[in-house]
Structure formats: structure tokens, C-alpha cells
Amino acid sequence: MTMPPLPTEFALIARHFRPLAGPGALGLGDDAAVLTVPAGRELVIAADALVAGVHFLPDDPPDLVARKLLRTNLSDLAAMGAAPLGYLVTVSVPKDTGDAWFAGFAAGLAADQAAFGLTLLGGDTTSTPGPVSLSLTILGTVAPGTALRRNGARPGDGVWVSGTIGDGALGLLSATRRLDDPTGALLDRYRLPRPRLALGLALHGIATAAMDVSDGLVQDLGHICRASALGAEIEAGLVPLSEAARAAGPALLETCLTGGDDYELLLAVPQAHEAALREAARATGIAVTRIGIFREGEPRVTLRALDGSLHGDGRRDHGGWSHFA
Amino acid sequence: MTMPPLPTEFALIARHFRPLAGPGALGLGDDAAVLTVPAGRELVIAADALVAGVHFLPDDPPDLVARKLLRTNLSDLAAMGAAPLGYLVTVSVPKDTGDAWFAGFAAGLAADQAAFGLTLLGGDTTSTPGPVSLSLTILGTVAPGTALRRNGARPGDGVWVSGTIGDGALGLLSATRRLDDPTGALLDRYRLPRPRLALGLALHGIATAAMDVSDGLVQDLGHICRASALGAEIEAGLVPLSEAARAAGPALLETCLTGGDDYELLLAVPQAHEAALREAARATGIAVTRIGIFREGEPRVTLRALDGSLHGDGRRDHGGWSHFA
């Protein structure tokens, strides 16, 4: 007698996900992965969910969806100064989702696994009567005691950001045809975050606090302020914008400062470490820009607008992206 | 100036999830958790997703949904012989989900954290235009080399199961009012799996293969057969049924054998280890029953029905639960 065919769910896993499995995944054939965290390293672990129609568009190509899912999580590792180790992914899709979607999704994971140096450890594939719902748990490691935190900023530290701010938020406007994006650069930044892993790995001993900007610069800076019990002042005119964002015009500056999906690093760096920060930026090829300063005071963000006026973050329109506001 | 109110998403996390956070979670206030896996232990890690309308009913109480989510994952640890360490959870819910739902969900997690000895490490809360979609990643540990696998069964090993089989599948019939369930025992088993952690921890050196029964006994036994390159024969008359399942009548026996949601352990145990298995069962208070034998041959399951007839698992109606069949 011949072996009966495997149910489709297991065939899908074997065809598309098993090739992504690495050491410890046991070929995705057991109830769990088993791995040894490298000796003398702490485990860093985070999870993010992406939902079609909320975090990506239902007709976004599945390879880009997969890469965004992996990269938003890699950005959390970057913010902690951690090196990637592996990931687990759960995928809930409508029953009529075709093999091509899974093939594209797996191809996106494969490309970024190779680019960022990690492998699949496990996960789950289920059906859903709703939109595609994805969840990814990422594992990384740090040398003991070196993880970057949000709570270490000190008065006088500069507020720094990597890369450029606002492209993701403008890219969403482009994707939904509310903004002209002739080069496609903004859409590309919305769909494909650039986790700043190399920079994050270089920041131990340089940054006193770090996080990634995912919910909007002003709101996320507020998190560092609360964790560090400090105020922060930033100047809109200092916030680094891409050429495409500048071309979109000053009316969209507020969108850039409060929109989400940047996946840049937001840092607190003492003046004495600025030379080391610039050297780390040069070595990793990732630009950094000083946009303000942390000060003693209430844990809030003050923004100096282009016209010199000051705005507090108590204003709703500076609040950033919240799922339940 | 007073501190501006936090956006609702972060208030939800602070109110309901932060009290669940344990060592390494950093109060859920950073981009990731940082923890040290205990020295000399391997990390065991798995992820499962649950979707309303697929894995639980949309009006199931949120505390029971949370406990089912945690327990289905704990069952994977049990199947690996691992001790619980912690978990991350992502929660995607409709925008109009009220505070009471989150309070109930967190209360369920709190109850089972205490019962099973683990704490929350991190996660994500997002909105969805679809049904509630949950994903949980569980972490456990084992002594190096002691994880139970699916691939170690040998010819002549007995096929064993813990507890009773079929209550979960019949409980779903009860929940959807297709089966009378006067005591509510079946519904309770559907909503609240019993992960067999204590038994799993006692099986190193006793079981040659193990997994948990989540997709139906026959289908899951097929996974051990494929992983171990063996056939298996089981007798329907030996499969342990609860009093409630027996009361449901013999017409539902096939549902018991092929339905999902058992979360019992399925084991391969050599005859020489049967006394040790029975002692482990006695010590943990978890019943075990021998239902068949592994044999050389094609990796397939043969079922001897109550009337003595033989059935192969190539039959679709013995295939168990697959999300995409």
C-alpha cells in the first residue's frame, strides 16, 4: 500500500516553510524547536502582529508582506542592540488562499533570512474567515548587560534619529493614492522597512537609551521620556527628511513627525559620545542626525515648529498612531 | 503641565498585561524582553494561533479563550518533555472591543500563569477588521538531549495515550448545539484543554516518541509513523473514552478518533518501560492507556474497528482536522 497523501496544511508547510528551517527547528516536524542559546549570551525576544488592511494592504505582494513582517521584528532587535538568532511565524489566511501566495510569502522570508542572518524555528498555519493575520516572534542575543533600553536617557543627552523620518507614513499615502510618489521611493519605504541592525549592534556604550520609531516620532520619543523620567525638545527643522519627503511639501511635515512605519532608531546620546556615534554611523553606512535634547522636567515632548512656535504632545494631532485611540 | 494621557493602546497594555509580566519582560516597556536561559538548559519554543470562528467560538468567554490559547501551547511543551519558562502573545481584536474583554482575557492568563508556573514576556496588541486573532509563542526548557521527539518509535513499542480521547471534538458538537451534553463535561474539555506537563516531564527515558493530539488521534499518530518510518495498528475498542463520550453513543466513535482538540499525549513506549510509564502515570495522577502497537512497514495507521474490520488512514474520513483539506 502506498503512503496516503498528506493533508494540504502539512503539504504547504513541507513545501514552503521547511526549506526555511534552520538549526533547532527539527525540520518543523516536532511540537517545538529545541535550541541552545550561545554560551554567555542573553536571549532577546519580541513579537509583532501584522493584519491585512491595518498594517499592509490586502493586495500587497506576499513576498513584501513577509519581508515587512520579518523586518518590523528585526527593527525591535536593532533597538535593543541584539544580533538575530531565529524566528517563529503564525499565518492565518482565508481558506481559498492559493499556493502562489504561500510561495511568494516564503520567498520573501527566504530573501530576508539570508540578508539578515537568521532562520525559521517554528510556527503555525491556520485558516481564518477574516483578513490575513500574521504574527512573528523574533529571537536575538546580546552580551549580558549590553541590551539597549529606553530608561537610560539623562538630562543634556541629545535626541538622535537614524536615516530619514516620515517616508513610511507618506508611503502609505502613496499606496492609497492620496499622494503623488513619482519615484516610488515612499511606497518602497512603507512596504520594506530597513531595520538598523548594524547600527544597533554598534551602540553599546554610546547610546544611553534607544527604541525604534514605529508609531510615530513624537509618540515614540514620549515613551523614552516616560521611561527615563525626562522631557525632550525637538526641532522640526532638524528632523531628517528624504528627498521624496521634502518634495511632498511642508504641509505634510506633521504627517512625517507623527505618522508611523519609520523603523528608524531613536536614540539618547551624551555629548561626550557624539564622536563615537558618528564613527559608528560612518562604519555602518547609516546616517544619524541630532534633532533635539533631553531635559529635566515633566516626561513630555516639546516640538519647535518651523515658524518657531512650540507645541506639546498633549495635542491629539501629535499623538502618533494608536490602534485604539 | 500635567502628563498627557497615554493613547488607549498603551493604557490597555499597562492596565491588563503589565501585571502579568515577569522577569525579563522589562515591564513590557522596551522593544523586547531580555532573559537568561538557565545554565545547562536547552530552550524549547513553539507558537500556535487561535482564530475566533475556527478554534473557538466568537462568544466564548474571553478568560476561557485566553486559557485555551495558553494551554494549547503548554501542551506542545508537555509533548517535548519541557518545563514552562514564559510566553509572548499577540492579540488582534476589532476596534470596538471593550475593556471588559481585555480584563477577562488577562484574568484567564493570570489564572493559568499561576497554575502552570510561567510569566508574560512580551507581545503586541493591534486592531483588526476581522475576527479576534490570537498568537502565542511559548518558551520552555529541557536538560540537554532530553527533549521528547516524534522520530524515536521502534517496532514493537506500544501506542499509548494519556487521559481520554474525543472529548474535545464532542465538546465542539456540544458548543454548537449538535450534541446533548447534560453535565457540560464535553464542552468543558473543548474550551479548557489539560496540558499534560507533569507527565511529559516524567517521560524521559521511558517514551521513545511523543507528541500531543491536537488534530485528531489517527492523523497525529500518522505523524509519529512518518517521523519514525513505522506503521501503527490501534484498536478502537482500546481507546479510552470518558463517561460523557461513552454516553454520546458508538455512532460518534469515529468523531472521537479523528476529531481534534484532545491535547492528550500520544506516546511510543517499549514493553520494557511499561512499568515505569505506569509509575509515572500514578505519580502524576494522569491515566495512560495502551491502544496499539508500532510495527515495521509503510508509515500508516491501521485501525481495527469495534466489529473487527480494518481501516487504513488513507480514507478521507479518518484524516483528522486540516485547515486546508
Describe the structure.
Two copies of one chain form a homodimer. Chain A is an alpha+beta fold. Chain A contains ten helices and twelve strands. In chain A, helix 3 links the parallel strand 3 (83-93) and strand 4 (119-127). In chain A, helix 2 runs parallel beside helix 3 and helix 4 (167-175) packs across helix 5 (185-191). The longest helix of chain A has 19 residues, at 62-80. Mean pLDDT of chain A is 92; it is low at 1-5, 314-319 and 321-325. At the A-B interface, helix 1, strand 1, strand 2, helix 2 and strand 3 of A face helix 1, strand 1, strand 2, helix 2 and strand 3 of B. Strand 2 of chain A pairs antiparallel with strand 1 (33-35) of chain B.
Short description:
Chain A has 325 residues and is of the alpha+beta class.
Largest interface: A-B, 85 and 86 residues
N-to-C order of helices and strands of chain A: HEEHEHEEEHHHEHEHHEHEEE
Q: Approximately how much helix is present in the residues of chain A?
A: 25-40%
> Got a strand count of chain A?
12
Features:
325 residues; homodimer; alpha+beta; disordered N terminus; seven-stranded mixed sheet; 10 helices
